[in-house]
# Entry
Amino acid sequence: MGMPATSNQYWLPADLEQFPEGDGCKYECIYGELLVTPAPRVVHAVALGRLDRILDRAGAKHRVIIATADVRLEPDAVVQPDLFVLREPGTGRTRLDDPTCLVLIAEVLSPSTAKVDRGLKRQFYQRVGVPEYWIVDLDARLIERWTPADERPEILRERLAWTDPVTGAELVLDVERYFADVWGDETLARCADA
# Structure
């Protein structure tokens, strides 16, 4: 589940090495809590793929990561964001253990991850200073945008405007169209009929 696993153990990144690779689950820990997330729904992958293409058209593609990767922003925490944009790709200075190497993190909500993505992870990303954190809510068809200083999210239902702080690339996302494309995707429709 995306909920914290029940245990009295204080989990550290090194503890995650005991779990099998390739079992379809994602293992993370924040503030000693173990987070285990099962494989996502097909619509989750469709939403990530579409967001990746949108960022590509905005000129950020060479720095977008949607593959599973450990991000260690604090010594006792490791997360695997659904999507993140790096500040300096392909250089020795970009490390996935430094919050200043990130300009954007996005998580696509699943029924099993909503509480953690909106709570524990959001608080963590804000505390370590990730400049922007987007929560893509597939069911409500909205995107929540958080910055480190926000007490409440900016709720985006129609339009999301973002300027890449590194390249200056402008992204204007038609939020309604994005969700219509995600839910209307042919692949998703075929899988739902199967």
